[in-house]
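Justification of resources, computational component.

The compute hours requested in this renewal are based largely on the per-chain cost of generating structure records like the one below. Each record pairs the submitted sequence with a full structure-token output. That output is archived, and it is also reused by downstream analysis tasks.
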Amino acid sequence: MIIGSSCINTEGCLVNRDNCSEDSLDRLGKILFFFCVLMEKNEFLARLNYLQWPILFMLTTILLIRLSFKNRIINDFIFTWAIAFTLWVLCSLIWAFNSGKVLEDVKYLIKIIVILGYGIYILKKDQSIKFLVLSMIFSTLISISMILPNIVISGESQILSRAQIIIRGVEVNTNQVCPSIAFAVIFLMYQIKICKKMSYKILYFFMAALFVMTILFLGARGSLLIVLIGIMLSALSGSGKSVIRNVIFAFILIIIMLIMVMNIPFLYEAIGNRIVDTVNLILGNTYVSENQKSDNFRMMLISNGWNMFLKRPLLGYGSGNYASINLVEFDVKYYSHNNYIELLTGLGIVGTIIYYLFHFRLIFLIFVNRTLRHNSYINLAKQIILCMLALDITSVTYNVMDMWLCLIIAYGSIYLGNTVKDKRVRQ
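The structure output for this chain reads:
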């Protein structure tokens, strides 16, 4: 809808009329952006390096063209923060134990900066997070469609361990795939809330159910926890009677999910018994089981990382060097399974503070801006950032593309939420 020299976009934000039109270069950029996101989703597409780099080069060219028109991306805090973190990772080459690991991280972070920059451009131009959110949802749907049928139907899979599955000769790590699916569920819950068409709401609900079933089938407890946290945070958003109604509905969903996990044989085998063993371990009921052995091993990795951090607390051993140092010090070559320990060991206190500076800036903006506590944008940002901080306890995320894209969406939600102070602008 046009109002004077401005127009209102699909999410109710007042934007400049120039931003309402989209030229062919922008459309091409969005297609390339989506393919970049998609190719990071699973190991099937990640092998296509001959496609990745040409696509990234074209996206970089388009971004530079847009920057030449004085788009204020470089001055944006999130872009500045990403460059600062990448530079600190690069500086860790000076004292790194294994410089090759540092260079791998730098190479990947440069790719992230390009995609991050274009994501910010889309956000500022469209004055909307819709494209970014739908990119995460549908790229996840495509990823699942490539993985799940090969396990369930064709049988052309080999389970190496709980987290490692070979499908048609490609090794898939469920610890890397499932967190992205969990955040896609959060984005689907957001879409269900803001969508006005009932047919779309039903479609999004069934997609969310499919995503949750995939997490259950792949046995990812950490990702399931993120989904549960997201459901509760979504239910608590709002005001008055709507909160009570949403919380009751959320509890019903969670109870149904737990009943399915504990009573359907293949789900119990995939994740139910793991939940039981972990709960028993937390309560002090220890016994011999593969699941408790896995949990104890993770705790050992965290303990090893903490001991390594205490030896070089300020600067660490160099980005990505946890596994290399762990092998030398403790004769165990595994990554930490914990983002906080991975960063403290690799980049020390300084690098960890630089990385989480952005997270805590978002938290500050969310909880200080109390006038917008019931705004749908702010509620989404709150869900993303709190779920990411929880996920970092069980996963290494600083070098995962999808997690950076989640940060863009959280940042964009706060940016847009701050522009919607008057309800009349949204009508």
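The CA atoms of residues 154 and 356 lie 43 Å apart. The beta strands are 2-3, 6-8, 14-16, 157-159, 164-167, 170-173.
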